[in-house]
Amino acid sequence: MDFKQAAKDTAQVITSYLTFQAVKTVLGQLKETNPAAAYWLNTFSSQTALQDGEAYLQALLQEQPDLAMRIMTVRQHIAEAICEFLPEMVVTRIQQSNTEHRRQHLERVTQWAEVESENINPEGDPEASSDSPVNPTAD
Amino acid sequence: MDFKQAAKDTAQVITSYLTFQAVKTVLGQLKETNPAAAYWLNTFSSQTALQDGEAYLQALLQEQPDLAMRIMTVRQHIAEAICEFLPEMVVTRIQQSNTEHRRQHLERVTQWAEVESENINPEGDPEASSDSPVNPTAD
């Protein structure tokens, strides 16, 4: 496992996601103050993929440099405000989510085992469940 | 700007991305040790969207619980190994990338201004560009 590459790739994904968050924020502000500009930015953003934040900004800089500068400022602001909290949030989230998946799985397996055991041996006859996992004579 | 919500949403995006990284890692391991399982997981992963890591794991737990458990363990391992480095990587990346976008933009604007000034005033006649913001006496 190449952790260095994984960290780099993850940082790139976060950067693009924060660019998207910044676009959403600026769009929200423009809707209040300059609906025409909001409409323009919305159209531009639906035509230009936001998957790659840098390519998006490069394209926007050619069309509306002021908006691109504003989005860059906002994404830096968001990054500085939230990044320090992310490691603990992510690790905790994954731990809790893993625990929950395991719990649900165990619950399902236990229920199946109970149902199966009832099907195999509906009247408590120990000989009814010799080879087959499901008793062919049940019901 | 709702930073708390932005942090939550970003943590969710990272969690799903690390799930994807874990699937990639397990796929790489299986290709070496169990090509049939690798083929199965690859097919499953191309049919089940990995955009939502939790939904993906839930679906996989129904089909192949062992593989799902392994992916969960790997994603937690990756998260614990790389998350602490992400805040500095992301903030630095955004700062550097913003600086680079601004530099490139400034360079383009300067080049345009030079070209414009040459076009407006090709022979250095100061009266040729009275209204232009570009310095008429340049060159």
Task: List descriptors.
homodimer; 139 residues; Non-ribosomal Peptide Synthetase Peptidyl Carrier Protein, Chain A; 2 domains; elongated
Task: Please explain how this structure is put together.
The structure is a homodimer. Chain A is mostly helical. Chain A has two domains: about 5-85, Chaperonin-like RbcX (Non-ribosomal Peptide Synthetase Peptidyl Carrier Protein, Chain A), CATH 1.10.1200.210; about 85-115. The first copy, chain A, is about 80% helix and about 0% strand. In chain A, helix 1 (about 5-35) runs antiparallel to helix 2 (about 35-45) and helix 1 packs across helix 4. Mean pLDDT of chain A is about 90; it is low at about 130-139. Chains A and B meet through helix 1, helix 3, helix 4 and helix 5 of A and helix 1, helix 3, helix 4 and helix 5 of B.
Q: Radius of gyration of chain A over alpha carbons?
A: 27 Å
Question: Which superfamily, in CATH terms, is the homologous superfamily of the largest domain in chain A?
Answer: Chaperonin-like RbcX
How many strand units of chain A?
A: 0
* Biggest protein-protein contact in the assembly: A-B, 52 and 52 residues
- Please state the oligomeric state of the protein chains shown: homodimer
The tally of helices of chain A reads 5
Structural class of chain A: mainly alpha
Second rung of CATH, namely the architecture of the largest domain in chain A: Orthogonal Bundle
> What is the H/E order of chain A?
HHHHH
Q: Give the overall average pLDDT of chain A.
A: 89
User: Sheet with the most strands of chain A?
Assistant: none
Name of the CATH class of the largest domain in chain A: Mainly Alpha
